[in-house]
């Protein structure tokens, strides 16, 4: 086309050298490219932008905010320049090769940027969808960006050296060690992100606890190389994504899905206060509404057993008897069963642990009907407030190591005793 253009000028009576004709052809290509750029950006894109601003659909605004169509238009302009160069310039010339090579690099760059814009726009759209909030889309999209960047770099190098991309890929084997060193964290993060997503191990919004990294709070972001956790003290902990695969962590999502949070706390009972219930104790405890059915049924069962076996009950070692500790366990279990804020469909028990020098542990194992932290703590505190207050009614007391106040009272009592003895002797 350049040669025909020169011949046409000569036919019109103009004499131009090949260099002058080349400059004029390049100028013509530039003018056409500028005109196309003006049409795309000043007319078409402005019109589409106004339409998107009027639209209530989120995806249209997201695409324009991320400049998707602008980058697509620039990529198309590169293709048009490539085609024009093939039409106007002489074939197999260095100028043609340079213009087409630059056009190819231009197109690859803006195709890559357009892909980035598309992924960013999809991420923005997904943030407003409740069904997609738990998916680690940011990490997956970053993985796609990394792969796309590597592919574009290979294609760009191939265009510069004029060789097939397959030849470059075959030479990457020798650079594997360098690539693994440079891209170690992204590669490990990519593999970890795929495993986390495929095995449904972690989602945005999950409560994650990982003491080795000081993390205890909600997951707010799952990226390619890092996972961000907002701790309960409002600090942010950043964890390498691959650490979630190599190390152990606790995900509290199951608790949130069930809707019940576990109470597992014990009180220590002084072993010296455990004894059999007397008739007076039985009469007094029957006034408790939660204990009356239990005491009546249990008393009947024990009396029948003792009569059948003809035990001599004058000895405390004979027969079966009720204890204040066992009765308190039954009372506490009934107390928990009658609370509306305790889940009755989940495990509910009051158990006795191994006794030791610190007393007899009595443990409450139950689930609250809420997972909210403040409500959970209030329910748990209310239960144990009641336990501490009702223990004396059963003749039980907490085991507590003596304090300085106890020693002071003991010393004062001993002094008073000695003074009274001296007074009596005088």
TrEMBL record:
Gene source species: Kangiella taiwanensis
Domain Mechanosensitive ion channel MscS per the UniProt entry, residue ranges: 185-253
Chief localization: membrane
Residues annotated as domain Mechanosensitive ion channel MscS C-terminal: 332-397
UniProt keyword Cell membrane present: no
InterPro entries tied to this protein: LSM_dom_sf (IPR010920), MS_channel_C (IPR049278), MscS_beta-dom_sf (IPR023408), MscS_channel_2nd (IPR006685), YbdG (IPR030192)
Keyword Transmembrane helix: yes
Pfam families attached to this UniProt entry: MS_channel_2nd (PF00924), MS_channel_3rd (PF21082)
Family listed: Belongs to the MscS (TC 1.A.23) family.
Transmembrane residue ranges: 20-48, 68-89, 95-119, 140-160, 166-183
Recorded topology in the membrane: Multi-pass membrane protein
SUPFAM superfamilies associated with the record: Sm-like ribonucleoproteins
Annotated localization: Endomembrane system
UniProt entry keywords in alphabetical sequence: Membrane, Transmembrane, Transmembrane helix
Protein name: Mechanosensitive ion channel
Domain of life: Bacteria
């Amino acid at each position: 086309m350049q040669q025909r253009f020169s011949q046409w000028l000569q036919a019109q009576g103009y004499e131009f050298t090949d260099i002058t004709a080349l400059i004029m052809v390049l100028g013509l290509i530039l003018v056409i490219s500028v005109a196309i750029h003006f049409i795309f950006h000043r007319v078409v894109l402005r019109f589409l932008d106004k339409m998107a601003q009027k639209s209530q659909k989120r995806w249209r605004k997201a695409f324009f905010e991320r400049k998707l169509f602008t980058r697509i238009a620039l990529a198309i302009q590169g293709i048009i320049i490539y085609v024009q160069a093939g039409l106007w310039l002489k074939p197999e010339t260095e100028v043609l090769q340079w213009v087409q090579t630059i056009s190819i690099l231009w197109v690859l760059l803006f195709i890559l940027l357009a892909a980035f814009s598309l992924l960013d726009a999809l991420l923005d759209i997904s943030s407003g969808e409740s069904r997609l909030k738990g998916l680690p889309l940011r990490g997956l999209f970053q993985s796609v960006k990394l792969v796309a960047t590597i592919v574009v770099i290979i294609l760009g190098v191939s265009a510069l050296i004029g060789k097939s991309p397959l030849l470059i890929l075959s030479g990457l084997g020798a650079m594997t060690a360098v690539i693994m060193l440079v891209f170690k964290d992204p590669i490990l993060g990519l593999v970890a992100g795929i495993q986390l997503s495929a095995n449904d191990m972690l989602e945005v919004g999950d409560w994650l606890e990982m003491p080795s990294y000081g993390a205890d709070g909600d997951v707010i972001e799952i990226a390619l190389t890092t996972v961000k956790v907002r701790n309960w003290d409002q600090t942010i902990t950043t964890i390498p994504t691959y650490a979630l695969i190599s190390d152990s962590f606790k995900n509290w999502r199951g608790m949130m899905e069930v809707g019940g949070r576990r109470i597992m706390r014990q009180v220590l009972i002084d072993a010296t206060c455990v004894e059999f219930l007397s008739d007076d104790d039985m009469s007094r405890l029957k006034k408790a509404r939660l204990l009356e059915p239990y005491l009546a049924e249990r008393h009947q069962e024990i009396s029948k057993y003792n009569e059948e076996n003809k035990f001599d009950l004058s000895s405390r070692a004979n027969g079966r008897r009720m204890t204040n500790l066992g009765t308190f366990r039954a009372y506490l279990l009934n107390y928990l069963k009658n609370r509306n804020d305790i889940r009755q469909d989940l495990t509910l028990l009051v158990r006795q642990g191994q006794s030791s020098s610190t007393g007899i542990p009595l443990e409450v194992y139950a689930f609250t009907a809420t997972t909210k932290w403040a409500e959970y703590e209030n329910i748990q505190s209310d239960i144990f407030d009641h336990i501490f207050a009702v223990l004396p009614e059963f003749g039980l007391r907490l085991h507590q190591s003596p304090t300085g106040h106890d020693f002071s009272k003991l010393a004062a009592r001993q002094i008073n005793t000695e003074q009274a003895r001296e007074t009596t002797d005088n």
